[in-house]
Write a structure and sequence with these properties.
Elements (H helix, E strand, L loop, with lengths): L5 E12 L2 E12 L3 E5 L6 H8 L7 E6 L8 H4 L2 E4 L11 H11 L5 H10 L13 H13 L5 E5 L7 H18 L2 E5 L3 H7 L2 E6 L2 E7 H7 E7 L10 E9 L2 E8 L9 E4 L2 H12 L6
Parallel strand pairs: 3-7, 3-8, 5-6, 6-7
Antiparallel strand pairs: 1-2, 1-4, 8-9, 10-12, 10-13, 11-12
Amino acid sequence: MPETTLALAARGLTKRYGRRTALSDCDLDLPRGRVVGLVGPNGAGKSTLLTLACGLSRPTAGTLRVLGAPPAADAAHLARVGFVAQDTPVYATFSVADHLRMGARLNPAWDQALAQRRIARVGLDPGQRAGRLSGGQRAQLALTVAVAKRPELLILDEPAAALDPLARDGFLRDLTEVVAELGATAILSSHLLGDVARACDHLVVLGASRVQVAGDVADLLARHHRLVTPRGGPDRLPPGVEVVRTRHTEGHTHAVVRVDGPLPPAPWRVEPVGLEELVLSYLTRAAGEGDR
């Protein structure tokens, strides 16, 4: 797929901090128009990938293109990308209205009508100082500032991680609606698989500093199955079947497999795999924990 049609394209992307490798030789294509869930354990490289995509740091090796250009290539390119950091940063002494005025001054494509509509919808008082807002309100303010610049790509680094369930529900609902309204692409980093299942239609699993699997959620679920056989597993699998993880229960072996086509008839029971099991299977393999 040509890089100009992708929201993000990485080839051999590597980032090291001293002796620690945060990302290692990553290849990744993210199509435009998707809400991408970026998942993985702490230290997997999620925040590193997002800071590289925003141009806040540079790769140690490899290449990265965002919307067809190097990250933060120039002011015009910066205007096409919105970013909400992990702690949903806002200025404590600024009022809600101050944040909107600042956004208007800094962003040439600022949509004041969109910003005011979102502020009214989530019930924020324009005169309220940000330091006195709840965590959910601060997250909504940060999201408003990011989307009112009308970005083509919206990057969110675990913005709802510290929110209570009700605030997180509202944030995710508003996120999916505003991304659809803008016709934008969003990358949502999260360790909460329920959030990813609800909001995202594309998935990237990072583990051990590498991309373990990536693709449209519906396609990934269609290509993965759980094979249940008598303990010990199948003697032989047909070509095009990759075992991702096996685990054993009393009398049976359960194998999560990825297949390139239909499974031929065989002495096993085929069961569907949910998103959580798919992600955990790849992360277990990446952690080198073996069969379990």
